[in-house]
Q: What sequence folds into this?
């Protein structure tokens, strides 16, 4: 998701998780940052910048606000195989070392 102007990374993450999953989270710490070049159709290649956090799931507030989102839990190896962005697979691998 995008960051709203004036919003911190942490606030954006909390808002996005609430919108997409319906949950509150507790941020533990920053895990890392990555830049990945992705193809975006007519726009060509874009630098996708990501900051990744370790978080704990809090309580479920309600259903996701975005109807096409759902939560699925995967083992580390399976998650690394199905994630479409290499930076996401990389951070899942790094998180298992925490």
A:
């Amino acid at each position: 998701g995008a960051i709203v102007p004036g919003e911190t990374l942490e606030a954006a993450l909390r808002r996005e998780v609430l919108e997409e999953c319906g949950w509150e989270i507790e941020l533990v710490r920053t895990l890392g940052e990555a830049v990945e070049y992705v193809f975006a159709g007519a726009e060509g290649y874009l630098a996708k910048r990501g900051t990744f956090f370790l978080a704990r799931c809090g309580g479920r507030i309600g259903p996701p606000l975005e109807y096409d989102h759902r939560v699925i839990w995967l083992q580390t190896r399976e998650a690394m195989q199905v994630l479409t962005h290499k930076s996401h697979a990389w951070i899942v691998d790094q998180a298992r070392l925490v």
